[in-house]
Amino acid sequence: MVGGISLIIITLASGKNIFETFPLTQILWTFVALLGLLVLLGYIFQNKIVGYIGERHTASIIRSASRGIIFRDVYVDGSHGVQQIDLLAVTHKGILVVEKKTWIGLVVGGAYDKQWRIFVNRGKQKYSKKNPHHQNYGHVQALVENLPKWKNQIISLVIFGNNAKLGNNIPENTINDRDFRKYYRSLPTILEQRDIECIAQFIENLNEQKKELKKRHQKKIKGMRRGKSKNFLF
∠ CA(111), CA(183), CA(178), 5° rounding? Predict the structure, then answer.
């Protein structure tokens, strides 16, 4: 569609009659084809697109409420390999290691459950996802290994979008976007400005290695998937 519109603008700017240069049918089919391509790409990458938008939105909320230094898509090397952290906020109230989820529906699960359940369409449909706190555990441990001086100031936090309804047994440090400001106000102040600057510099140094760390993380994920496939086959 963008290409078709650009074609019209360029043709008009040149002083030519687009309908003489390109038949109307051809123009319409070009629009349809390009629109179809955009829809197909949106469908294929919808989870990544929704996740990206959700993370950006949450990062904005955290930045506004905490006035801290926010990092997105951070890679940290630990004893269990490279870990990918969705959001990392260095604030006066601690180092927030955020696992962002864009699930929609009623979310049910406990702190020690391996899988959480999501109910949609008034409970008519349900599916399971890995406990996000278990996911975030590896992220936190990798950060603790790299920042042992501040290990007690590292906070694991799972944040859902506002389209998720959290069940009664959901563990602490699990909130919706709309609850972050209240949650943050409830935390004690535990980091001084010099600590924040030192930690932020460490994260900046990690970002300089991001390309290599990301490559190693992707290799680890592929290995885990191959292992699961072998277990399934045998």
Answer: 95
Distance between CA atoms of residues 125 and 20, nearest Å:
54
Q: Which of 140, 142, 141, 181 is nearest to 159 (CA)?
A: 181
Query: Quick check: helix, strand or coil at residue 197?
Result: helix
Residue 114 sits at φ, ψ, to 5 deg, of -70, -35
pLDDT of residue 233: 36
Q: What is the mean pLDDT of each run of 10 residues along the chain (234 residues)?
A: 50 53 62 62 51 82 95 91 93 96 94 94 85 95 95 96 93 96 96 95 87 81 61 37
Q: Where are the alpha helices (DSSP H) in 113-192?
A: 132-146, 180-185
- Classify 105 as helix, strand or coil: strand
